[in-house]
Amino acid sequence: MKTFKFQSFVLVLIAFVLGFSEFLIVGILDDLSTQFNVPVATVGYLVTAFAIVYAISTPFITILIGRFNLFWDLMATMTVFTVGNILSFLAPNFFTLALSRVITAMVAGVSISLGLTFAGYIAPMSKRGWLLSWVFSGFSIASVVGVPLGTWISTRFGWRISFLTVIVVSTATMIMIFLSLPKDFKQRKSTVSGQLALLKNHKIQLGMLLPMFNLAAIYVFYTYLRPIITTQLHFSIPMLTILLSVFGISNIIGNRASGKLSEGPGMKRMPAVFIAQFLLMMLMPFAFNFSWPGAILLTLVIFTMPLLNSPIQLFFLQIAEREYPQSIVLASSLNSIFSNFGIALGSATGGVIVSTLSLNGVGPGGAVYAVVSLGLVLWLNYLTSKGLSTSSSNL
């Protein structure tokens, strides 16, 4: 049991350091804008670029390495991830910083996919939902501890030291991976076409779109969280750090609730979640006229962000284990891949709205994607209830 608990901690730590690196940009947008003399909206597109590279590279790399030893795959991707952050730390100009983010993004998705695959491998069936929700919580903990810490370090000591912190945590994580995770873990060998057979399943095809539009709805406003807090809601820089921590705590609570959902009603409860997202986002233009009501509304929307995670992850894994055992790693990667497509879509949409309208427009912009998510989950639940679960040829 002690071994399982330590292994679980290491898997959560992997998610934490990946989330710390990915989300750090949100907290230091203004500092990078000043350092490199580029508009805040341009720096915001680093979030978009990271997500696009993450989403496009992850399935290709995952399929290529899936035939090898998964432990050494994880060690290799974490090494490249660390090197990418070292390049960010040393970046002399904005182009080099952007290049470093591309390198980091190329392996971040593969690393968390492998981490989730290990979670499914080491956890007993009764603990799978629990461990998956905790691994996803690693990203939320990064919001609570990592992003506010990185923001505070950036304002006090400079943004480079924020990246140095990521490097130190990443190196420590690799040491613990080496000491704790099983070194003989492989999935069933298969050809590339054999692994891709998973994607012919129509419920998989439909399910992949859910995390994309869920995160697109959130990231229309989340990418610009710092200017929303300081410019729109008129909070001070010290309050910015506090509020980022509060939002992160809300996200952690949402992840824990996601684990409970996966053990209970699962996907059947998601329509209510997306309806709530839509209503809250439509209220943003009004709530943003008042500091504390605006902050409370943001806290509630951020709580809904991770509720889909564990139910959709178990949904993908159960289909893969039952019908496509050669595609377990690919199935583990789908949530993170399409979440990052959603981050790219949402942050790009937010950039257009902020540039052409104002920060007041990000709520209704996100609400449009929440409606799309609602339609998708209703359709998926209908297919599930009718037992239409094998391939697109069924329709």
Automatic annotation (TrEMBL):
Transmembrane regions listed in the UniProt entry: 9-29, 41-63, 70-90, 102-123, 130-153, 159-181, 206-225, 237-258, 270-288, 294-316, 328-354, 366-383
MF-aspect GO terms: transmembrane transporter activity
Domain Major facilitator superfamily (MFS) profile, chain residue ranges per copy: 7-385
PROSITE patterns the UniProt entry points to: MFS
Record's GO cellular component terms: plasma membrane
Region forming the signal peptide: none
The keyword Transport is annotated on this UniProt entry: yes
Membrane topology: Multi-pass membrane protein
SUPFAM superfamilies for the chain: MFS general substrate transporter (SSF103473)
Predominant cellular place of this UniProt entry's protein: membrane
Pfam family of the protein (one): MFS_1
Subcellular location: Cell membrane
Entry keyword Cell membrane: yes
Keywords on record: Cell membrane, Membrane, Transmembrane, Transmembrane helix, Transport
Source superkingdom: Bacteria
The protein, known as: Major facilitator superfamily protein
Organism name: Lentilactobacillus sunkii DSM 19904
Lineage, uppermost ranks: Bacteria, Bacillati, Bacillota, Bacilli, Lactobacillales
